[in-house]
Amino acid sequence: xxxxxxxxxxxxxxxxxxxxxxxxxxxxxxxxxxxxxxxxxxxxxxxxxxxxxxxxxxxxxxxxxxxxxxxxxxxxxxxxxxxxxxxxxxxxxxxxxxxxxxxxxxxxxxxxxxxxxxxxxxxxxxxxxxxxxxxxxxxxxxxxxxxxxxxx
Length: 152
Fold this sequence. Notes:
single chain, about 150 residues, mainly alpha, two-stranded antiparallel sheet, 2 strands, about 5% strand
C-alpha cells in the first residue's frame, strides 16, 4: 500500500534543513507558523521555495506508480489493433479483459475496485481506492480541472 504517515516528518525536516543551509541563518524562521509554511510551500513563481511535503505527495505518487504498473501487467490493444503483451497475464482476471485497451470500451480499474466482488476486494485495491480518494479530495480543493475531477 501507500506509505503510511510514520516517518514523514523526518524526510520533510531534512529537506527543510537542507534548504535552510543554502540561505542565511534564520531565513526560514518566520515567527508566524502560517507564513513560515507558505514560504516553504509556495512555488517559486509566487516567491516561495516550492518545497513539497513528502507526506502530501505520498497518495499521488502511489496512485501514479500503481496505474503505471497495472497497465504493464495485462495485455492491451491499441487503436490500430496492435497488442502489447503484459508482464503478468494471470492478473487479467483481477482487472478484467480489455481493462487497459485503447478506446472508449476500456474500463481500467472498474473491476479491480468493485466493492461487491464475490471473493472480496484485494488489499492493493483498497490501498489504491484510499490513495485515489485522498488525491481526488486534494484536487477538489484546487480551482484547476483535470483527470481527478469527480466527473472524470
